[in-house]
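Weekly modeling sync, notes
Attendees: S.R. (lead), two postdocs, one rotation student

Agenda item 3: backlog of single-chain predictions. S.R. asked that every request posted to the team notebook include the full sequence so nobody has to chase files. The rotation student volunteered to paste the first one in as an example of the format we agreed on. Action items at the bottom.

Example entry:
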Amino acid sequence: MPGRFGEMLHSHSMGKMMNEPIRNMVTKRLIGVIAGTPIRVGVQRMVEFDISFLVITRDGKIVGFMTDSDIKRAVADGVTMDAPVEEIMTPDPISVDINTTVREALDTMSRKRVTRLVVTNDGEVEGIVTLRDLEDISRQKIETFISRE
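Predicted structure, as returned to the notebook:
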């Protein structure tokens, strides 16, 4: 099996996928709240939409993400749920261009130690790409490779 897995990783289709632009993997439906919104309202929104993070905006710009992990830390630290979301959000999101390759996006995530990137096109936000999105695409490629055996 390790031989087959290694073969798959070095296969033309897997290498091709790593060099594809992330433009087709971008989540365009962004759910968020504006800065100043109480954490409680943000959490309610996350539950309502069954999502693991919220986009936080100020003046129409993305200024951060509030994630499940941020909420857990806040609860553990005794932060009141009436505090503003920016008190616990992960600030200064990293952005990449829509033509960034999967390989470059993964490298950026690894270097910056983040699991989501803001995707822009000519400076305008197109959406978000997450590590989960890229993992799902990779899993599909692996399953396709195995099913051809």
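Discussion: group reviewed the output briefly. The chain is about 40% helix and 25% strand.
Action items: rotation student to repeat for the remaining queue; S.R. to check formatting next week.
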